[in-house]
Write a structure and sequence with these properties.
The protein has 250 residues and is of the alpha/beta class. The protein has a domain of 110 residues: Rossmann fold (3-Layer(aba) Sandwich), CATH 3.40.50. It contains nine helices and five strands, in the order H-H-H-H-H-E-H-E-E-H-E-E-H-H. The protein has a five-stranded mixed β-sheet. The protein is elongated and about 90 Å long. The two termini are 40 Å apart.
Length: 250
Amino acid sequence: VLRRQHKASFRAIQDLTKDKHLFHYLHLYFSWILKAGAHRVTEKVLEGPPREELLTDYEAQQTDEAVLAVNTDNKSESTAADEKKGWSPVFTTLRQMLQVLGFAKFHLLAFNVVQGNQLIVRGQPEGLVLSIFETLKILIPSRCFKCVPYSDVYKESWTCNFLGLKTDTEIPTHILESHLYTLMDIKEQFNSSEQTSNNPFKHYSFEIRGKELVHGPQILKKIEEALLNKHFSDSVLDQYLCALKEEWME
């Protein structure tokens, strides 16, 4: 440790070490450390605080990975069987959902998702219900996404904020009357037996029940403007949405 003598003036560290290239060496070594770390460390965006059940989720993930190899063949067989039963459309992007639902319905869905209200999707086919959740979850931080994909009983909002229900599942009256919940009912239309139209969703109608009591956050307005911007490709849009969420969380 270099110490200053009594009543002596402060001197630069270069004078104390008698090395005029000291800062060049320090800069060189620090740069090497950062470069070496970049090869070993990966940046990860923290989207929301860790959940209490994070450790349980990790243990469950390890178990699922162990069982995955056993279930691969069974899954392939079930997929083939589903293909024989029939085909159902799915949502893949927010833009596609906006075009199918229209701006008013999409805005109501997105508003409640961003606000943290529970989204309930009731109907069939199951694949269509799941695709709605997979498409909308990009609007919120990943750790804020708690989903029960397809159930035959209602689940409370503290259990999940995305809930899929079978067609005949009853929902408590106080839930339907609350502004903290949004319900989407998927109904099949049997007026046409063949899919001759280019619209794969022509056999389905989407009824949405919900309320918008306050002005939506600024991030929702920016997201909707980006979705309507034809100059944004899908890849650019994904990066833009990620940047918006980072700015929002700060």
